[in-house]
Known about the structure:
Elements: H1 2-27, E1 36-44, E2 47-55, H2 56-59, H3 69-83, H4 85-88, E3 89-90, E4 97-108, H5 118-121, E5 131-141, E6 149-152, H6 154-157, E7 163-170, E8 173-180, E9 185-187
Parallel strand pairs: 1-7
Antiparallel strand pairs: 1-2, 2-5, 3-6, 4-5, 6-9, 7-8
The structure holds zinc ion.
Amino acid sequence: xxxxxxxxxxxxxxxxxxxxxxxxxxxxxxxxxxxxxxxxxxxxxxxxxxxxxxxxxxxxxxxxxxxxxxxxxxxxxxxxxxxxxxxxxxxxxxxxxxxxxxxxxxxxxxxxxxxxxxxxxxxxxxxxxxxxxxxxxxxxxxxxxxxxxxxxxxxxxxxxxxxxxxxxxxxxxxxxxxxxxxxxxxxxxxxx
Length: 192
Ligand SMILES: [Zn+2]
């Protein structure tokens, strides 16, 4: 009997764990990791929706509320760069893409009630704040079949950024990939 219960508990744990890990990874609920951002790309028909979430540390090198003129200027400059999405994330010219909308904001890192607070995890840094840049984009591509890949100057533009975890959703399903300072490219041939 005990054996059966243990077996059931194990089975339940196996069923629950991957879903939980998946959720945490995709929704960015935990404290962010400096150097790492997330880029979600959803391609449907000729529409490309992108969402970027990146620690302030990656983009401007600080996460407190900008107080000096230089800090305020750095935030505005970063927002302007990120707004020009097709300059940061270059899609193949043959796909004939244009940006319809871009929204970039800097915000305090958000957590759901009950989530572990990053301040608790960093008690050695009392009062340490986290903030991040959040950008959403809508792009239309006249020839989406030519969306074979993506190349980014994100790492050139933003000195603190090391890695982007990329989630791509297309009619063929979901895939995950990484772009890094050493490999600032993404291959989309398998998912289009
Ligand atoms: Zn942070």
